[in-house]
Amino acid sequence: MGSEDRRVLAGVDGGGSKTECVVLDVKTGSILGRARGGASNWNSVGRDAAISVLRGTITGALSAAGLDTSHLAGVCAGMAGVDRQADADAVKESLRSWLQNDEVEVLVYNDSVIALACGTGGPSRGCVLVIGTGTIALGIGPDGEHVRASGWGPAFLDGGSGYDIGQRALAAVARAADGRGPQTELVAAACRHCGVEQAEDLLGWAYAEPGWARIAALAPAVLQCAEEGDSIAFRIVTGAANEAVRAAVTVAERSRLKGHRFKLVLSGGLLSEDSPFLDIVREGLKLALPSAEVVHPRVEPAHGAALLIQDHLYGGSEAADNSAAAGPNGMFRTPERPRHHHHRRTPSSQGKQSRVHEWRDQLRTHRRAVSTAEEVFGGALGDPGFERGHEQASHDMYSSSMPGLEALSLSDSPIPAPRRGHRRTGSR
Fold first, then answer.
1. How many CA atoms lie within 13 A of 94 on its CB side?
2. pLDDT one-digit tens code per residue, 35-59
3. Which domains are seen in the chain, by residue range?
């Protein structure tokens, strides 16, 4: 088949730190090209910049395949920050105006919908928890209604996100540098990450180029400090994990899935298989949602977006017959093998596994913050007998790293707390 006859689909994953696009052949289901661009969450970069990145990334993936927009049969974009139907409609209109071809089908979803489809094999019943630069939880219940929690962005304390972890770490650094808070290894870690000599120099770094993704990029350094035993970092990380679990529990309850068997997809950079943050979140989910089957995406988000538009256009006919990736309704007959399953362990991967096990042990024995996963996540379990005692101890644990939260009343505190009787570990 000549390139002039080739029909392709574009799938886009637009996030707070990067945007990725894959181009899928309609006939074979194979990936012909891919490209990566900058952030396209328009809550952080603005609408015009987000649309520009989206168009540029699609163009780049088509160019990598030796094609152009005239070969497109459809586009599906999953974008962080597209939280309302009006947002999705605006993106659709911008893409259609750019393509100038009414025959090209355009679908736009919040990126959480794409993440759910990547783990369940299609837009079906289940929940997804996405933790990267931001955090969002989505649930789709038996009636097909979409319910969500978190994902409001940093102005609303987007708890559990990479930005949240990075922001709280910077706050802890400032308190330590001033002497109004405990000393922490986060000071040295933040300085190394930002390439500065001392804590005061972080001011220039923080305000030279404000952006959510830059703050969120501190999260791995915070996780490393927590692994190495820094109690302030540990409190930040466990508090963030607690917030993430609460978001997942909330959507499971509101979509009427809690107590029933359902798939809970974990997605996003902070929930990758080699991340110790995944381990602590899993512990909480195991306690709070024991009926959930926790799974990971079976394909990358951009590929999942392409498969969704394939399913929408062709269903189980041409695409299902010809695509090696397609199955029932055009989705996932032979999913790509996840990179984290059944791979040969190299010395590097063995080291990562070892660190994860060390983290699990630390979670269960670190008495300076909390002692067990049940104490961290008890508030998310929904037992009213725990709630008031939980809130006080967890408020101490999480707010100690963030100035201003001490002033919140217990009823306003966003943090579920450990078991009643837990000894306070911080001071007011």
1. 18
2. 999 999 877 788 899 999 999 999 9
3. 3-120+299-330 (3.30.420.40), 129-296+344-407 (3.30.420.40)
